[in-house]
């Protein structure tokens, strides 16, 4: 967990608030925390779990990555990389160093290879989707078209 600088005022989400904002169940957020996919940013003295605003972005990214077919391990690595290179408010940390990233070079290489495979697949599908859209638009004009 990255400590929040004293000069930064962040509004933190509870587990339920984060879940509601992302459109998932509270149990999903709790499960992701339990398996290390989305660890909390803070835990209060009374044990209440809190998430920084950037956690909402990370949770949405996790959901997207999973829907794209990434494994839980790959998604966990993506979050670990993001957390290492970004502040809790989501801004890119220019001062990060390699030691901040808790992944081995092998893990990073596997992740990069997987991302290239996914990007290639989506580039191929981009043309297909555009063709389908053109075909459908010719036959069924969009309701929002003027």
From TrEMBL:
<dbReference type="InterPro" id="IPR009061">
    <property type="entry name" value="DNA-bd_dom_put_sf"/>
</dbReference>
<dbReference type="GO" id="GO:0003677">
    <property type="term" value="F:DNA binding"/>
</dbReference>
<feature type="domain" description="HTH merR-type">
    <location>
        <begin position="12"/>
        <end position="81"/>
    </location>
</feature>
<protein>
    <submittedName>
        <fullName>MerR family transcriptional regulator</fullName>
    </submittedName>
</protein>
<dbReference type="InterPro" id="IPR000551">
    <property type="entry name" value="MerR-type_HTH_dom"/>
</dbReference>
<keyword id="KW-0614">Plasmid</keyword>
<dbReference type="Pfam" id="PF13411">
    <property type="entry name" value="MerR_1"/>
</dbReference>
<dbReference type="InterPro" id="IPR047057">
    <property type="entry name" value="MerR_fam"/>
</dbReference>
<dbReference type="GO" id="GO:0003700">
    <property type="term" value="F:DNA-binding transcription factor activity"/>
</dbReference>
<keyword id="KW-0238">DNA-binding</keyword>
